[in-house]
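A further point concerns the way the authors explain their paired sequence and structure data. Showing the layout once, in full, would remove most of the difficulty. For illustration, here is how one protein appears when written out as sequence plus structure tokens:
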Amino acid sequence: MRLRLRVSSRPVSTGMRLGQVLDTGPMLSRTFFHPPDPHVAFLYVSRADLLRLGALFRLAATSPRSALHVPAPPGPGPLEARTTSLLVAREDTGLRPSDWPALRRAARHAAAPLTVTAPAPRPADRPDAVRRLADRHPARFAEHAGTSFVLARPELLFWMGDSLTEAGESVATDPGVHRRGESYRDDWVGFFDPDRTDDPMHALCVVAADPLFHRSGRP
């Protein structure tokens, strides 16, 4: 299914391929990104937000001139750790984390509502050729000016989106969510470099957290 989502389009004028930042605003209010401490990050997401975020990752994968910005929700996250906003883009946009403060300031003055249609998901499993690509060109993580960045090749961003969608679709029947209100879904080690553990991040743990499906009082 192809999701239609309402975002804000913020044009940016740069010497790179990037032409706009798509801002989700309050749409993903149950999405909390906890950056690495020291090398493992956590992404806590509700079922509805998992489905939306998966679709938006796929949109970023197919948009060489767009970056996706997910603001950090107000207030503390589910962990006793800091949260940041999240920016996702293809690596061929030319976006550098150090460019973000200036782009963010410029984009605040020219935002327009935009309805986008994300590509439909594919099966989360991938052929060996894509897995080999992930080994040769893993996704890159960086943090700058209170924002966390995931920059990757389009094939990997699309794969990440499908992984998020698959996690969202499983929440309603997940025994862990029923018992505790949350369930660990994936660690995304395969998307980042598993051998270079001195890098800022080598694993991103995706946790489905949704009290709507928590069957309180049941064993």
The first helix runs from residue 47 to 61. Residues 3-209 form one domain. Residues 45 and 208 are 5 Å apart (CA to CA). The mean pLDDT is 88.
